[in-house]
Amino acid sequence: MPSKANNKNNSSQTERGLRELRSLIIAGHWPAGSKLREVPLAQSLNVSRTPLRSALLKLEQEGLVERAGAGYTVRSFSIEDAYVAIELRGVIEGTAARMAAEKPTQQQDLTSIKEVLVKIDAVIHNDAIDGYAELNDVFHQQLAELAGNDLLKNEIERASLLPFAAPSAFSSSKDDRSRFKTSLIVGQQHHHGLVQAIERGEGARADALAREHAQLGKANIEVAYQEHVGNIRRVPQLALITAELNT
Amino acid sequence: MPSKANNKNNSSQTERGLRELRSLIIAGHWPAGSKLREVPLAQSLNVSRTPLRSALLKLEQEGLVERAGAGYTVRSFSIEDAYVAIELRGVIEGTAARMAAEKPTQQQDLTSIKEVLVKIDAVIHNDAIDGYAELNDVFHQQLAELAGNDLLKNEIERASLLPFAAPSAFSSSKDDRSRFKTSLIVGQQHHHGLVQAIERGEGARADALAREHAQLGKANIEVAYQEHVGNIRRVPQLALITAELNT
DNA sequence: TAACAATATTATGTATACAATTTGGCGTTA
DNA sequence: TAACGCCAAATTGTATACATAATATTGTTA
User: Fold this and answer.
1) How is domain A79-227 classified at the CATH fold level?
2) E-strand spans in chain A?
3) Closest residue, chain B, to A64 (C-alpha)
4) Fewer Cβ within 10 Å of end Cβ, chain B: N or C?
5) How far is the CA of B51 from the C1' of C11 (A)?
6) Do the Cβ atoms of B149 and A91 come within 8 Å?
7) DSSP string spanning chain B?
8) What is the pLDDT of residues A123-168, one digit of tens each?
9) CA distance linking residue B225 with residue B204, whole number of Å
10) What is the CATH number of domain B8-74?
11) pLDDT band at A174 (very low <50, low <70, confident <90, very high)
């Protein structure tokens, strides 16, 4: 029987538990700092303790939970943490963009990322902004690959893991449609500039554009935060941000 | 009985297995790409499969092993990977230094890092360069804390995990003592400049100095690589670097 | 002889019983 | 009454048996 996907990555207990636990945490199902008890957690997720512990180790690596003596607690994030995470993603993406620009690049290396650019142009032109988030993620993924180094690509993926740090975080806000469309247009301008800079070997420009591009994410989070202050649990990506600073 | 350290972090099976397995891998005990079988590995490390699997998950996070279908293989690194890892550390440390400079800094925040500076000055003046590596690590740790954000501090630590990426990698080379001492003197100049830049709020300078400081690591690795080409297994930090590019 | 498929073997994935440690509470004592 | 230490309960750490999936091998067929 031709089962396309290998079992390990999709339907294993570890993977199921990881996915469900991750989305529960991101959704703010537990207040920051909550202790996660293995036995009741395993029961409610319908897995045994062994795959649950694997999932917890993975989530520790992703930064969503942290050890506290024995066992794990849900990690708490301050709004400053969110800014720092976005800043870091921008800095690392900038490094990748610079390295991509500084190495000899063939025309064919840029064909697929240019196709994504065209698609995003169309999405914005048609006001079909629902499809934007996915295409934006693809663009950033392609960008990460242009430097031609797996280690760097992995670090970019890692820097995009936290829910408020991802390139497409907050890209579906419906509160202020005109501000949001402006953000899309400016962001796409950054995208075009990035590809052009890489094509021309302009490393410093590519770096600067990637960093400035990440600033859009900060602006988005800031708006979302100001609009929902005192009620941030309503915003999916802000659910696990506590108003106070964490120690 | 006053056991100072908590058991979990030092004498647990997981921790023991992790430490031993890590040092075996770093020492190049297995050729890159080797499959790590759980049962024989567990036997040779005198732990059961459960803590071994925890250790493997941790090592995957550290980047030393990677999944390959079922189970893990020893990750292979190219010399370019080493350069990228150092570059990344420099970039992230640079971001931390910049943020430290850009935030209001009290005099007292800098007292402990300045003490480290004085100690390193003494070590270099006395030619007691054996103590340099440890003090250098402390300096970089203090630097990571000056930005005042745990998330950033964690990322710096992470970027310093790979054996060739650590701040003090190659800092005990005995092949070319005079070149090495030059490297120390220049590096310490960077250290002084970094603290001064942070003190004066010169963010761009702090960033640039941290990046340039990391370049010393690249230079060291390059020398070690050139000297031992075809025989890199002799150099501890280069043991798991394959001459060829990895796919 | 080469390629495919069935099967046997070996590996990892999972569940659970047990051990060791942590944690909270209670009682005693200064 | 507060603090210390001890004890008990609960929780995580570890080992191992079993289930399931991956891999190698062997036989058959074109």
Assistant:
1) Four Helix Bundle (Hemerythrin (Met), subunit A) (1.20.120)
2) 35-36, 65-67, 72-74
3) B151
4) N
5) 18
6) no
7) ----S-HHHHTSHHHHHHHHHHHHHHTT-S-TT-EE-HHHHHHHHT--HHHHHHHHHHHHHHTSEEE-SSSEEE--B-HHHHHHHHHHHHHHHHHHHHHHHHS---GGGGHHHHHHHHHHHHHHHTT-GGGHHHHHHHHHHHHHHHT--HHHHHHHHHHT-STTTSTTTTTT--S-HHHHHHHHHHHHHHHHHHHHHHHHT-HHHHHHHHHHHHHHHHHHHHHHHHHTTT-GGGSGGGTTB-SSPP-
8) 999 887 778 899 999 999 999 999 999 999 999 999 999 999 999 8
9) 32
10) 1.10.10.10
11) low
Per the structure block, which two tokens stand in for B118? 């004085």
Average pLDDT over residues A16-30: 94
**Distance C13 C1' – A14 CA (angstroms):** 9
- Tell which strand D nucleotides have any atom below 7 Å from a protein Cβ: 11-17, 20-23
Closest CA to B144 of B99, B189, B193, B86: B99
| Calpha distance A185→A70 (Å, rounded) | 48
List the 46-85 stretch of A: residues with Cβ below 8 A of B.
50, 53-54, 57-58, 61, 63, 69-70, 77, 80-81, 84-85
Q: On the CB side of A178, how many CA atoms lie within 13 Å of its CA?
A: 0
B70 touches strand C (CB under 7 A): yes
C-beta separation of B176 from B223 below 8 A: yes
- Examine domains B8-74 and B79-227 and report if their fold is the same: no
Q: Measure CB to CB from residue B95 to each of A8, A91, A150 and give the nearest one.
A: A91
Model confidence pLDDT, tens digit, residues B35-82:
999 999 999 999 999 999 999 999 999 999 999 878 899 999 999 999
The DSSP letter of residue A110 is G
Number of Cβ within 10 Å of residue A53's Cβ equals 20
Listed in sequence order, the residues at least 6 apart from B238 whose beta carbon sits closer than 8 Å to its beta carbon are: B82, B164, B221, B224, B225, B228, B232
**Chain B interface includes A155 (CB < 8 A):** yes
Tokens encoding B115 = 């003490």
The residues with which A35 forms a beta bridge, in sequence order, are A73
Neighbours of A41 (CB within 10 A): 19
Is the CATH code 1.10.10.10 the one for domain A12-74?
Answer: yes
pLDDT for position A221: 86
The domain limits of chain A are 12-74, 79-227
Q: Which nucleotides of C are covered by protein (CB under 7 A)?
A: 11-17, 20-23
Q: Each residue of B27-40: pLDDT tens digit?
A: 999 998 999 999 99
Q: Which residue has the tokens 């060291």?
A: B220
Q: Give B-chain residues touching A15 at CB under 8 angstroms.
A: none
Of A164, A151, A133, the closest CA to residue A64 belongs to: A164
Residue closest to sugar C1' of D16 by CA: B48
Percent of chain B residues topping a pLDDT of 70: 89
